[in-house]
Structures are given as structure tokens and as C-alpha cells.
């Protein structure tokens, strides 16, 4: 096949204790999946039907990376998240079978241009520019299910310059990972390399130039991201 220009390289995330890597196909994110975070965002914490949005695959960022403060925002936020990695695809996956489709789990950070997101929300427009910008998806190395199991409880914590900003338990998810997988698969076919960022606890807040942000999840280790100056 002849291309009009060189295809973009495949975006990948690391695997813990391995030289192999996981090709990233899509990054799904779920909105307001911890009750306390729904409240702080001015929304009802009841178990309303979940909603999802996407980040591009090439938004992924390695652990320990320094990223520039993004353009067009004055309110750049962190969001600690557990990431589920799909290893076996499928359509119309039953909830009771959903975990069989997970290859592993990782620590993630759903970086957000909050001012752009909120403006879009107020105008009834998509969140793409607030959520899907360059370098907006730091993800630590993935831990295979064979080693990490399926985390359904345990702490999720985020610090900025050593100060705790977010802290909760994975058991507080409104929509569980099996439920998320099943719901998504009834809307579109899931395939290997699809990543699901499973929501963030309360305590979201701003990052500024010079900050060091660390997300930690029990059993999965840490994800460190440093914020550099604007380019």
C-alpha cells in the first residue's frame, strides 16, 4: 500500500517488568464515577446512566515524563484514575463475563483543561478540547491480571508536591469495571488495546508550572508527572 504521507507511529503504553508494550487503540473515559466528585462538579451523585468520552490514542504519556503546561487554559487540572486495558475484544459482552476481557490495569491521570471543559458543558458542546488535547493521558506501566488480579478495592491517591489532594477507595466507584465494559460493548465493539479510564475521586484541582503530581493505586504503584513551562 502506498500512503500519501507517512502514517503516524503506533501509540503504546509500557508493561510492568517487561520490554513488551501494549498498542493503544482508543482511550475511553467515564464521567463522574465517584459520588463525591459528582457533587463537587455540581451534579447529582445518584446512579444515573453513565456517560463516556474519548481521548486520542496519541495523548498517552509515559511515567516520569515532564510535560509542558498546555496552551489555551488557565485552569489545568489533575484527575487520578484506575485504567483497565482490554485484551480480548467483543460486542454485547455480558457483565458476568466482562472481566475475562481485561488484560491488565494501570495508574492513570486524566489531565483536563477545566475552563475549556466547563465552557463547553455550559454551551452544550463536546468536551474534546477540554479533555482530548495533546499529552493529556499519563499512564503508568500496565500490570497483567495474572499478577495484579482485578482490583475492586484499595486506595487511590493523588499528591501534588507531596501534599495529598485526592484520596478514596476503588470500592467507591459508582459504575464497576464489569458494568462499564458491558455498557460500552453494547454501544460499539471493544478490541484489544482499548483503554478505559474509570473515573476520578473528589478533590480535583489545579496544576501549575513546576508541580510534581503523583498518582498511587494500591497494588499498582505510582505514576509521576512533572509540569514544565508553556511552550
UniProtKB/TrEMBL annotation:
<dbReference type="GO" id="GO:0018773">
    <property type="term" value="F:acetylpyruvate hydrolase activity"/>
</dbReference>
<dbReference type="InterPro" id="IPR011234">
    <property type="entry name" value="Fumarylacetoacetase-like_C"/>
</dbReference>
<keyword id="KW-0378">Hydrolase</keyword>
<feature type="domain" description="Fumarylacetoacetase-like C-terminal">
    <location>
        <begin position="27"/>
        <end position="227"/>
    </location>
</feature>
<protein>
    <submittedName>
        <fullName>Fumarylacetoacetate hydrolase family protein</fullName>
    </submittedName>
</protein>
<dbReference type="GO" id="GO:0046872">
    <property type="term" value="F:metal ion binding"/>
</dbReference>
<keyword id="KW-0479">Metal-binding</keyword>
<dbReference type="Pfam" id="PF01557">
    <property type="entry name" value="FAA_hydrolase"/>
</dbReference>
<dbReference type="InterPro" id="IPR036663">
    <property type="entry name" value="Fumarylacetoacetase_C_sf"/>
</dbReference>
Amino acid at each position: 500500500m502506498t500512503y500519501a504521507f507517512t502514517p503516524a507511529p503506533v501509540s503504546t503504553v509500557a508493561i510492568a517488568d517487561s520490554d513488551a508494550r501494549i498498542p493503544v487503540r482508543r482511550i475511553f473515559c467515564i464521567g463522574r464515577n465517584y459520588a463525591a466528585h459528582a457533587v463537587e462538579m455540581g451534579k447529582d451523585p445518584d446512579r444515573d446512566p453513565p456517560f463516556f468520552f474519548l481521548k486520542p490514542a496519541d495523548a498517552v504519556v509515559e511515567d516520569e515524563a515532564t510535560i509542558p503546561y498546555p496552551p489555551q487554559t488557565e485552569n489545568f487540572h489533575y484527575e487520578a484514575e484506575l485504567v483497565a486495558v482490554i485484551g480480548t475484544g467483543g460486542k454485547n459482552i455480558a457483565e458476568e463475563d466482562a472481566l475475562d476481557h481485561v488484560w491488565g490495569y494501570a495508574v492513570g491521570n486524566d489531565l483536563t483543561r477545566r475552563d475549556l471543559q466547563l465552557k463547553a458543558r455550559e454551551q452544550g458542546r463536546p468536551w474534546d478540547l477540554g479533555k482530548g488535547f495533546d499529552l493529556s493521558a499519563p499512564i503508568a506501566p500496565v500490570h497483567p491480571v495474572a499478577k495484579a488480579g482485578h482490583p475492586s478495592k484499595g486506595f487511590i491517591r493523588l499528591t501534588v508536591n507531596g501534599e495529598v489532594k485526592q484520596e478514596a477507595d476503588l470500592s467507591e466507584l459508582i459504575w464497576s469495571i464489569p458494568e462499564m465494559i458491558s455498557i460500552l460493548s453494547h454501544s460499539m465493539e471493544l478490541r484489544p488495546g482499548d483503554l478505559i479510564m474509570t473515573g476520578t475521586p473528589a478533590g480535583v484541582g489545579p496544576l501549575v508550572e513546576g508541580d510534581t503530581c503523583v498518582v498511587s493505586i494500591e497494588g499498582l504503584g505510582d505514576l509521576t508527572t512533572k509540569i514544565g513551562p508553556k511552550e
